[in-house]
């Protein structure tokens, strides 16, 4: 289970405004309270009510299992035509779909509605590390991969591992020879980095930024297409340093496969309006997410593209 | 470190509004803790949105949430002792001696001693938090995979105390517990193990599902038989307060367990369940003369002190490192970040009203909890006088509903029931449930860290004894196995001295 | 727990046989664990294999030395135990379909009956407690409870 820091946030309730469309809205969290899916649902639930785009507060419900797989099967199998139900999803779901670990359904089994924000991958080292830039790191890593245990918050095959594998590829190290340490979430990655047990951390920007700012770890590169705003503004992107690695961890929603076109379009339009409101932008920032707005067909395409990308990466790494 | 922040904190915590939130939090926490399967994390997930909607200032929110958290550690013991249904993860070991005590009509005594030891554990943890938080934060950093392996070996060594008169059953139970942890996603390789292609099993068996099944459902089945055979006797109410001798006997176990529980709580990889398991088994190893497991009050005091101390300890990495020490503190950390507050050592200087207010409120909260719990003991103890036809359906429904609300899945409840039926069979065959639970609690941490340690070293096992912390823990493990045996031997040798003393040394 | 029947007991032997079968089954399944590679030298199979081996050994020992056990229920007693188990599984399995209130009323009622209530008494306890817990969880704790897809048609 990943504990993305900002992910532990909740807010909900509020005062209702007035519009039409589904008389009851519900956001399904495919995990326990407190994870990334919960964050995504809370973000939508809060902002939708705050921006008065829905009449009554959106209910947030939980269905844990298989990092969203149980919820995915539930939506496809049990509530395929429920127009009031959106389910939180992330690029992690696309990864599981790519690995066929999402039950018997593939990435076209649901209707992808919108993404509402993204986090970005980062590479970090301990604050006292002699390595100052991504280039130095890649070179040192390439020379002596055994000296550089890499820690991430997920198993072999997870996004943190894949980021490490992409980095290793740049250093000319085969994925199988990385000394990869699968830790329990981003918190453990940071304590192990500070303790010197791992030398490279693969993680997400939002969970690492606080300790970077406090000078305990050093983020060498962000895996975004341009620099991130805020506390990480002075950290160069991987691309700037000559490595074409862009790794967004997007968060969004899907609805059931048999939801009517009218309802689907209503959701897409509602999210399109939502992401432009100041209420939403404030909520998104409070959760450590960066803008990543793709609506309807565009989001559908991103999901399919990512599924394919993950599949290629996995194959290349020998998974 | 200057304690100015703490005085600021007390002035915050003692404001009537914050005092009221502390009180509400303690009360809700006690109830949430007492309800099986619903733990502090659910309670906090429930309250946080309300706190935001009410636009509470951050220090009030933190005081409320923290009160729910440690209130739950107080509450968990109630259902453990009265119903053999552990109210939350940290209260499992409390049932081992607490429930037999209640069956003997000593429920009020058990509840009192556990409230007192909870208080001591909680207060000692806050004192530790006050004076040593920054230094202790470093311990969390010094624990890498190899150190966790050594810690788990130590925990298994304390388990040697669980071996009863039929060691084979303890061994089988422990192995079953360990095997259960291997179900689900392997956190290292990403392989799915024993999941039978069911997404519900991808995350493995949840601890609380195992515990509710093993303890509560199997207990109901046993009671059903006794009911039919006319062997279910009404429980005497018994006298209320433990004797002075009992309290004195529980003093050192409580202090020791508070200390070990606090340190285990500080470590981000282990929490209240490991803390209470280690505390219980250690005390049993040190003190047991055949009374543990049969309602020994020291066996109730130890795990309760430990789980409350662990809850306090979990705040250390959260406040000093910005890294959660448990699932619940992870949610609270998120709450802080929603207020745009960055945890870390600078919190004590930059926002003393939050760090200090939180810590001060924990002193106040523990006192409130003790004052709230003692008068309620009589009421709780009388719950056992409720006729079975009312009480037992309530146990069943709370077990089912608790698991259902925590996991929103019928499959989880069915798994829990299945485990319950198996547990019933095992109990009939003379197996203890505790070794299964302990194997389960320790197994995952052990396997994951062992494999991570070897991944770091590239397969070289010498990494396991590479640091001072590891070596100390390995030696402690050897001592805890050898000590009672050595003591017994010395006693015997002493009796036979001087003739054979040297020969056996 | 009284009434232990000492010396050789059949249930112990049966349990040992089941445990042995589980050990062999898990050991066999462990060799089939599907993974490309692991970043650690042990891999995901080592621990399950070691544990199932240990369990097999312990089960063998247990077979020869089953120790003491309580007698399992027989006759009407067994029937009642089975009745409880079946009711539990059946009502829970139907939870999503028929909803919380009907399913749990039955579960509470049957349990109350088994623990000595009369039929009308059990029915009363069932309805009263189901309503009570429903209100507690739904409104006081605000948790999601299934209303039954059978009736809402969703």
Structure, explained:
The complex is a heterotrimer of chains A (319), B (505) and C (154). Chain A has ten helices and ten strands. With 319 residues, chain A is of the alpha/beta class. In chain A, α5 links the parallel β5 (150-152) and β6 (180-182). In chain A, α1 (36-50) packs antiparallel against α9 (278-286) and α3 crosses α10 (297-317). The longest helix of chain A has 21 residues, at 297-317. Chain A is globular. Chain B is mainly α. Chain B is 74% helix and 1% strand. In chain B, strands 1-2 form a two-stranded antiparallel sheet. In chain B, β1 (184-185) and β2 (192-193) form a beta hairpin. With 154 residues, chain C is mainly alpha-helical. Chain C has seven helices and two strands; from the N terminus they run βααβααααα. A two-stranded antiparallel sheet of chain C has the order 1-2. In chain C, α3 (75-93) packs antiparallel against α5. The radius of gyration of chain C is 23 Å and the shape is flat. The termini of chain C are far apart. Residues 1-7 of chain C have low confidence and may be disordered. Classes of the chains: A alpha/beta (319), B mainly alpha (505), C mainly alpha (154). Chains in contact: A-B, A-C, B-C.
Write the layout of secondary structure elements.
The complex is a heterotrimer of chains A (319), B (505) and C (154).
Chain A: E1 26-29, H1 36-50, E2 59-62, H2 69-77, E3 85-90, H3 91-98, E4 111-126, H4 134-143, E5 150-152, H5 159-170, E6 180-182, H6 185-194, E7 200-204, H7 205-213, E8 217-222, E9 248-255, H8 261-274, H9 278-286, E10 290-295, H10 297-317
Helix pairs in contact in A: 1-9, 3-10
Chain B: H1 4-13, H2 16-34, H3 40-53, H4 58-83, H5 92-103, H6 107-142, H7 145-159, H8 167-181, E1 184-185, E2 192-193, H9 207-228, H10 244-266, H11 272-287, H12 297-313, H13 315-321, H14 327-338, H15 346-350, H16 352-382, H17 388-407, H18 410-428, H19 434-457, H20 468-496, H21 501-504
Antiparallel strand pairs in B: 1-2
Chain C: E1 4-5, H1 10-31, H2 43-64, E2 69-70, H3 75-93, H4 95-98, H5 100-114, H6 119-140, H7 149-152
Antiparallel strand pairs in C: 1-2
Helix pairs in contact in C: 1-2, 3-5, 5-6
Low-confidence stretches of chain B: 497-505
Whole-number total of structural domains of chain C? 2
Shape designation of chain C: flat
Average pLDDT for all residues of chain C: 88
Biggest beta sheet summary of chain C: 2 strands, antiparallel
SSE string of chain B: HHHHHHHHEEHHHHHHHHHHHHH
Strand neighbour order, sheet with most strands of chain C: 1-2
What is the strand content of chain B? under 5%
Residue windows where pLDDT falls under 50 for at least 5 positions of chain C: 1-7
Please indicate the count of domains of chain B. Answer: 1
Give the N-to-C terminal Cα separation of chain C.
Answer: 49 Å
Helix/sheet category of chain B: mainly alpha
Largest chain-chain contact? Answer: B-C, 66 and 74 residues
Could you report the average pLDDT of chain B, rounded to the nearest whole number?
Answer: 86
Return the structural class of chain C. mainly alpha
Helix proportion range of chain C: over 70%
What is the distance, rounded to the nearest whole angstrom, between the alpha carbons of the first and last residues of chain B? 49 Å
């Amino acid at each position: 289970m990943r504990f993305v820091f900002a992910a532990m946030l909740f807010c909900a309730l509020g005062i209702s405004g007035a519009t039409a469309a589904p008389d009851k809205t519900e956001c399904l969290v495919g995990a326990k309270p407190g994870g990334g899916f919960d964050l995504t649902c809370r973000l939508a639930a809060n902002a939708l009510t705050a921006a008065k785009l829905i009449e009554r507060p959106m209910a947030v419900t939980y269905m844990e299992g298989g990092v969203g797989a149980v919820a995915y099967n539930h939506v496809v199998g049990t509530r395929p035509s429920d127009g009031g139900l959106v389910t939180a999803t992330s690029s992690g779901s696309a990864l599981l779909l790519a690995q066929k670990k999402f039950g018997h359904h593939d990435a076209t089994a649901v209707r992808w509605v919108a993404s509402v924000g993204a986090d970005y991958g980062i590479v970090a080292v301990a604050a006292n590390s002699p390595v100052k830039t991504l280039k130095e790191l890649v070179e040192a890593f390439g020379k002596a991969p055994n000296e550089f245990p890499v820690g991430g918050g997920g198993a072999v095959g997870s996004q943190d591992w894949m980021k490490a594998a992409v980095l290793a590829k740049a250093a000319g190290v085969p994925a199988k020879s990385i000394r990869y340490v699968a830790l329990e979430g981003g918190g453990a990655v940071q304590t192990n980095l500070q303790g010197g047990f791992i030398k490279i951390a693969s993680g997400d920007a939002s969970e690492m930024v606080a300790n970077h700012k406090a000078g305990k770890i050093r983020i060498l590169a962000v895996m975004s297409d341009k620099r991130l705003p805020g506390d990480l503004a002075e950290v160069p992107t991987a691309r700037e340093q000559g490595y074409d690695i862009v790794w967004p961890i997007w968060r969004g929603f899907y609805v059931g496969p048999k939801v009517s076109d009218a309802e689907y379009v209503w959701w897409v339009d509602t999210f399109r309006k939502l992401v432009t409101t100041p209420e939403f932008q404030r909520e998104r920032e409070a959760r450590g997410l960066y803008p990543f707005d793709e609506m309807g067909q565009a989001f559908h395409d991103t999901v399919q593209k990512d599924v394919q990308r993950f599949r290629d990466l996995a194959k290349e790494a020998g998974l | 470190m200057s304690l100015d922040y703490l005085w600021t904190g007390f002035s915050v915590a003692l404001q009537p509004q914050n005092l009221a939130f502390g009180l509400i939090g303690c009360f809700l926490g006690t109830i949430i803790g007492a309800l099986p399967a619903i733990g502090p994390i659910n309670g906090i997930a429930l309250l946080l949105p309300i706190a935001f909607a009410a636009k509470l200032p951050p220090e009030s929110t933190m005081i409320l949430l923290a009160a729910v958290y440690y209130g739950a550690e107080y509450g968990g013991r109630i259902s453990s002792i009265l119903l053999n249904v552990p109210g939350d993860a940290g209260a499992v070991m409390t049932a081992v001696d607490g429930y037999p005590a209640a069956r003997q009509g000593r429920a009020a005594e058990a509840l009192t001693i556990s409230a007192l030891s909870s208080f001591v554990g909680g207060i000692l943890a806050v004192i530790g938090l006050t004076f040593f938080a920054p230094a202790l934060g470093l311990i969390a950093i010094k624990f890498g995979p190899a150190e966790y392996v050594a810690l788990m070996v130590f925990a298994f060594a304390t388990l040697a105390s669980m071996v009863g008169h039929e060691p084979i059953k303890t061994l089988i139970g422990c192995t079953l517990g360990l095997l259960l942890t291997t179900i689900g996603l392997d956190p290292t390789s990403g392989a799915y193990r024993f999941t039978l292609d069911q997404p519900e099993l991808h995350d493995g068996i949840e601890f609380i599902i195992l515990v509710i099944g093993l303890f509560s459902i199997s207990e109901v089945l046993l009671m059903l038989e006794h009911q039919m055979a006319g062997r279910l006797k009404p429980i005497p109410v018994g006298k209320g307060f433990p004797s002075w001798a009992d309290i004195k006997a529980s003093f050192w176990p409580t202090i020791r367990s508070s200390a070990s529980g606090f340190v285990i709580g500080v470590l981000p990889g282990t929490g209240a369940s490991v803390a209470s398991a280690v505390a219980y088994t250690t005390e049993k190893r040190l003190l047991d003369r055949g009374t543990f497991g049969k309602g020994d009050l020291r066996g109730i005091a130890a795990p309760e002190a430990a789980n409350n101390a662990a809850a306090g300890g979990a705040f250390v990495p959260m406040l000093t490192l910005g890294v959660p020490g448990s699932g619940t503190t992870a949610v609270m950390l998120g709450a802080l970040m929603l207020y745009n507050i960055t945890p870390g050592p600078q919190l004590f200087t930059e926002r003393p009203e939050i760090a200090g207010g939180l810590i001060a409120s924990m002193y106040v909260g523990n006192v409130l909890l003790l004052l709230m719990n003692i008068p309620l003991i009589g009421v709780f103890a009388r719950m056992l006088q409720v006729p079975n036809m009312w009480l037992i359906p309530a146990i069943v429904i709370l077990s089912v509903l608790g698991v259902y609300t925590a996991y929103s899945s019928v499959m989880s409840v069915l798994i829990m029931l299945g485990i319950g039926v198996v547990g019933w069979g095992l109990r009939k065959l003379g197996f203890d449930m505790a070794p299964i639970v302990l194997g389960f609690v320790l197994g995952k941490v052990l396997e994951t860290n062992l494999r991570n340690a070897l991944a770091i070293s590239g397969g070289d096992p010498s990494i396991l004894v590479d640091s001072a912390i590891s070596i100390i823990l390995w030696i402690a493990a050897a001592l805890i196995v050898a000590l009672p045996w050595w003591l017994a031997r010395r006693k015997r040798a002493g009796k036979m001295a001087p003739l054979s003393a040297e020969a056996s040394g | 727990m009284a009434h232990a029947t000492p010396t050789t007991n059949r249930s112990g032997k049966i349990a040992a046989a089941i445990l042995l079968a589980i050990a062999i089954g898990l050991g066999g399944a462990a060799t089939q664990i599907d993974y490309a590679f692991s970043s650690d030298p042990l891999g995901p199979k080592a621990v399950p294999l070691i544990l199932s081996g240990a369990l097999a050994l312990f089960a063998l020992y247990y077979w020869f030395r089953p120790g003491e056990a309580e007698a399992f229920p027989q006759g009407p007693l067994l029937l009642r135990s089975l009745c409880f188990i079946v009711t539990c599984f059946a009502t829970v399995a139907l939870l999503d379909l028929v909803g919380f209130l009907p399913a749990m009323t039955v579960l509470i009622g049957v349990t109350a009956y088994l623990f000595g209530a009369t039929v009308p008494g059990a029915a009363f306890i069932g309805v009263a407690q189901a309503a009570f817990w429903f209100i507690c969880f739904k409104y006081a704790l605000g948790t999601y409870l299934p209303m039954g897809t059978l009736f809402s048609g969703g």
